[in-house]
Amino acid sequence: MNTAVFVTVFICLASALSAGAGCQPVDSSSINDIQKLSRRYAESTIASDISKIMDSMVQKNFVNFLLNQREKKSEPTLLGDDPDYRIFNDLLKKEFMVWVHSKGDGFK
């Protein structure tokens, strides 16, 4: 019985050693490849994050642009500060008043 156990253990150890001998030893080139792959992954992750941030910033800027355009359309124009506009506005008011009075005189 002891010999059967010894032979079984010997066979297991021999197969483990032969399997280990078939493995490639870890050399510096495979370590460099692993480092390159991890660096590429990190760079692509950073690039993806930056891309997402830039997209959200562009979306926010576009929404702000649309809101500003909407506010500009709803604001009245401040042409009252221009002296030429005041003169033109006064003339229009006078002509309108003259027209109203001329129509009103006909009903008396």
From TrEMBL:
GO molecular function: glucagon receptor binding; hormone activity
Keyword terms of this UniProt record: Hormone, Signal
One of the GO BP terms on file: response to starvation
Gene3D superfamilies, alphabetized: 6.10.250.590
Xref: InterPro entries: GIP
Signal peptide range in chain numbering: 1-23
Any one cellular-component term (Gene Ontology): extracellular space
Protein name, as recorded: Gastric inhibitory polypeptide
